[in-house]
Amino acid sequence: MNIHTPNRRTLVRRGIAGATLGAVLLSVAACGTSGASTDQAQPKGDPALTKLVPSALAKKGTIVVGTQPDFEPANFTPVGESQIKGFNIDLMDAMAAKLGLKVDWQKVPFDQLLIGMQSHKFDATIAGMTDRKERQAQVDFIDYQVAGTVFMVQKGNPKKITSEVDGGCGIKIGDVKGSDAKRLVDMMAAACVKEGKAPTQLISFPSSSDKNLALVSGRVDAMFWPDMAVSVINRETDNKLESLPVNFEPKVYLGATFSKDDTQLRDAFFAALKAIHEDGTYAKILKKWDVEVIDLPTPGINLATS
Residue 229 needs a FRET pair 20 to 30 A away by CA distance; which of 2, 5, 21, 145 works? Predict the structure, then answer.
């Protein structure tokens, strides 16, 4: 699929070229930086929905949302720009507008999102986080998309990895710190050990660009990747990688997170999500980014059961 992107050199290519901008971006993001101006005109909102917003937040007129800044096409900052873009950004902006709110985007590493929610640094987050029962103990999810998973490996699959749970014994899998990969790697390692083979290992990296570069350079043997973004990683790595299915992982729900202490705000955004489904905005955003494969026709709250 052809993902809409600016004409730019990506984080991955900069890493391959040895440039340092990605490291600078990450060090800034670790402190939490604003990714979009909040001085745009205040949305009027839908009167039937604006009344659902907690009064203090409605008076403030702005919601603080945390996101990871380096995963295209979901949430990423193009080189030479400060404003974050992607389908997650468009979806959250559209929901907030229905509620008469502007979004103050805060860019942080993925593993800081739940920490930021629990410390009340953010009112919400959206970054393609997998809804899991264990995470539901910390936050509430508004599930707005589904995602499938593939392996990305070097061209030609030199390690002869297969799609099965025991198809990567002894290999190193790279992923972003705090992601859902540990659960999958633990499943693979257990299957390998049961067969008397070397366990699969997880190597964690601070950002997606670091992870991608590690695979291209051979420091890891594979990584998990969303099925809707295979064309992005192939373009960014000059087709040095190829994908294969992950047969032991069903499609999962991905959601925006909200504090368990503020169900009123959660419910307001859930109503806004249903509204952008009904008026066609949701479908238009998915089409714009060529990610119709993520479509979840009936969104919900805390849909994951495992």
Answer: 21
